[in-house]
Amino acid sequence: MCKTVRVISLTAVLAEPGLDLKAVHVPQPNAPVRWVATSELVDPTPFLEGGELLLTTGLATAGWRREWTSYVTRLRDAGVAGLGIGTGLTHRTPPRGLVRACEELGVNLVEVPRLTAFVAISRRTADLLEQAEERAARTALDLQRRLTAAAAGPDPSSAILRQLAKVTTGVACLFTPAGQLQSGSPGDLDLLEIREQLKVIRSQGMLAALTLSSPQQVITIQPIGLNQRPDSYLVTATPTRPTEPQRRSVTTAAALLALVSEQQREKLEDRRRVTSRAFDLLMTGDHRTAQLLLDRNAFPTKLQLLAAQGPPEAIEDALTLAEVAGANGAAGRRGTLAVRVDGDLFVVAADAVAGRIASELAGLGLFVGVGDIAAPDSLAGSRSTAVQALARTSAARPVVRWNRIVHEGLTALIDQPTATAFSASYLGTLTAEQLETLRSYLRHHGSHLKTAEELGLHRNTVRNRLTQIEHQLGDSLDDPDVRMTAWFALQSAAAFVDDRRPIA
Questions:
Q1: Structural domain contains residue 269
Q2: Which of 263, 341, 420, 436 is 20 to 30 Å apart from 228, CA to CA?
Q3: If you ran DSSP here, which 8-state letter would residue 207 be given?
Q4: What does the pLDDT look like over 304-332, one tens digit per residue?
């Protein structure tokens, strides 16, 4: 258990009856007092740690005029909570130079009357510190009990976060390692900022924690989990600097959430096994049994399958993202199903949201192929086209859709090196003049007349050129297969301009 920091406010000391302390200049009434120190030294700062209420009779300051500014400056820099000047001995009243220096430097100044013993202030402050420590301990224990009780409910993570938000009078929520909201209400948190901060610290695993302070709020981010890789991140935001009981509550909540996460891991693996079996059934066309296995309503009538590849960590992030979206009932995600097969990710989604999901996966660093639209009982074909589309992805084009490949034609199905080599071998013996004639002839569907008109040639000249071309190709252009092959070779010569991945 963390040791409670003993601290009270200067206001609490000033309010103590019987001490008769007088606030001369107190711009920071809530300054934390950690102890009372007494010193008559000109420079007591080497013996201070910060947070002290320093008491002095000013024995060494008799006759001071300009020296007060440097004296108060040293005390301010040492972090004292305030200065108590005893009157009735060296100084009848607080010296004007001292008062002026405290006003200029923003240091709390208190007058200690002649009849108030310094030891009485020390003893009473010690009593107040002890009482504050006992209250903090009781408060922390009560908060811990409430958090533990929340963890015993049916939805422990959500209950813990709600209770923690009450305890800290702020925001408490969980984010996935990829920066997606997993549970809890983010309030007015800047989600983009949280996502960027997680990108920075997640490589440090369970060792990473972060505190962000601004005039509006104090944000803490800490990893949750019992393994080397965090399962999630706890993000809290408080309107002011959290108190000691609040900090201890955050620590308790983090520990409870880690235990809950570990307990839910086995359930998660069970759900993933069921989902994987349902996916296998869908691939065989048995969508009704898959539906019963998943205990859900009917699948949408139009589905698309997405195939994705990438680093294992990105695949896990993507799988978690799909599961969180499904658990939170994200709009349009009805029927969405995600599984990992031999290290790759496959997602079944309604065609209306497949494109958005593909973009999300690409944002996680994955290559994504989007298959053809299919009915629930014919998804095997969509999987095949998704794999074909995945094979065409590249760093320049991380998402490839099958319908775009269809639109691009046959050239989109052959990788660039193979198509270029084929074109060079098939057409390599033809001159530029013959290539121009062949292209025009094929474009006009074998019409000698239209080819002659386009090229400004006599029909006999066109016929002679085509005869020479057939001789060099070794095939007759009257054969539809030959014309198709020749057209493909002509298109392949200039069709590929981007770097594409070969089909495996």
A1: no
A2: 341
A3: G
A4: 999 999 998 888 888 887 776 655 555 45
